[in-house]
Amino acid sequence: MSLPGVTVQKKDGGLGSIPESADGKRGIVGVCTSGTPNQIYILVDPGTVVGVLGRGPLSDAAITQLREGGGVIYAVPAEASIDGTITPDVGNPSSPAVTLGTTPTEALLVHAKITKSGALGAGQFQFSLDGGDSWSRSYTLAASFAIPGRGLTLTFAAGSYTVGATYKWTVTAPTASIGDLQTAAEVLKDSPYLMEWIHFAQPGDNSLWAVAASVVEDCFQSYKYTHAICEAPAPGANVNTWVSTTLTGYRNSFQSRDVSVVASWAEVVDPTGLQVERNVASKYIGRLSKYGLADNPAHVGAGAINGIQVPSPFHTGTYGKASDYNNGHALALDELGYVALMQHKGRAGYFFVEGRTMADPSSDYSNIMNVRVMNKVMTLSRQVWLDQVQGKVDPTNIEASLAYMVAKSNAVLNLMAARGELIGASISIPAGQDVLSSHQIIVEIRVIPFGYTREIILTVGYENPLLQAA
To answer: Are 277 and 312 in contact (CB under 8 A)?
Structure first.
């Protein structure tokens, strides 16, 4: 027995504070030249990325996404187990010979053009890394020239060079094996961080997409409700074969509501100002990150996508580069479930057709907006209801016992509605539950999402007010 008096006990949870969500946070896995494989690097400033990750697909993706959408990126370098390649153009002059060597760090189209005739030490040349769209200043010909910051070296044979002679090479980026990418993604899965999605920053086929789906499934088992965004392989020269055979074949054997695949490639302005061909996944993710969870990345009113020069494949026409890709290809890809580029007549630039996922077309989760909203609902609702685990409840009046928990859960959903992330939601506790026998309670949460005006039909005509009935 204690002495008479007043004992004060401090209680917590009465304010109903909102749990942490994954808003504005995403993971990326891929290859880069710096950093330790399978270690997480937290990035918020695009200006610091090269100092941390060096160059390569992972670095480019992180910079582009931070510039486009801000937020927080959890970047994990994957082991670069497959070296990049350097392939000379068959039309290169054979004498004097010029070779390109050492270690590629990214996909480039390297040109070397003689700008002043002469031998080594007298003649001059320029180089381009984007197929001739932009050129360096002129340099004096030397036996060896290291292209600054790119891990590439030009070697000039002895001889007399003629002004205008041009040498060309196609350089591919180093890549990770599917297993290496999976290992890097599992680092994100096992981390304490929440993220809206994991971007696999390397083109791949349905084998890689299946691994991405399995990583997301594992994340769900760890109560991390996320999504995977993958990149389709490049179209090559024949866009029709790419759409009707290659990507159609991949889609016929792959389906997942946990994965989105960005199909379109385009010439884009990369973080260093080069005009290079890339999958537009980072442009897509940047747009998703910039706008709200329920905002459609294809919304025309948000404006055209930044930095898209021309969709791939393309050729040089009368008025410059002309795309072989058209809105017919865009529709076919969209119907297959891919994220694809399109044009709207009367508007400059390029837009996304729809925010697709690789779910069945009849699924509630065939668009990325519903995926994002539901993943947030699941994340926040689970955190709220964890407080009730092993808590006592009146088995004769469960609804009254859980009224406070329902109110806390509703507060989260109401805040999402206030932010324009959903229209409304309801929470119910089905009657007739025997908690004494089952030791569990079923709580049903139903969300009303936004609809989207994919097509607008305008009916116009004339009327004669003098013919109206009195």
So the answer is: yes
DSSP string, 237-273: S-HHHIIIIIIHHHHHT--BTTEEEE--EEEEE-TTS
**CATH code, 25-81+175-352:** 3.40.50.11780
Distance, in Å, from the CA atom of 196 to the CA atom of 422, rounded to the nearest integer, reads 17
What are the domain boundaries of the chain? 25-81+175-352, 86-171, 390-470
Report which residue type is found at 455.
E
d(CA 368, CA 227): 9
Write phi, then psi, for 362 (nearest 5 degrees). -85, -5
pLDDT tens by residue, the chain, 470 residues: 678 888 787 777 666 677 788 898 999 999 999 999 999 999 999 999 999 999 999 999 999 999 999 999 999 999 999 999 999 999 999 999 999 998 899 999 999 999 999 999 999 999 999 999 999 999 999 999 999 988 899 999 999 999 999 999 999 999 999 999 999 999 999 999 999 999 999 999 999 999 999 999 999 999 999 999 999 999 999 999 999 999 999 999 999 999 999 999 999 998 888 999 999 999 999 999 999 999 999 999 999 999 999 999 999 888 889 999 999 999 999 999 999 999 999 999 999 999 999 999 999 999 999 999 999 999 999 999 999 999 999 999 999 999 999 999 999 999 999 999 999 999 999 999 999 999 999 999 999 999 999 999 999 999 998 887 65
3-state secondary structure 171-226: ECCCECCHHHHHHHHHHHHHCCCCCCCEEEEEECCHHHHHHHHHHHHHHHHCCCCC
Q: Record the tokens describing residue 306, joined without a space.
A: 């930044």
Task: Determine how many CB atoms are found less than 10 A away from the CB of residue 382.
Answer: 12
Q: Smallest Cα–Cα separation from 391: which of 441, 430, 330?
A: 441
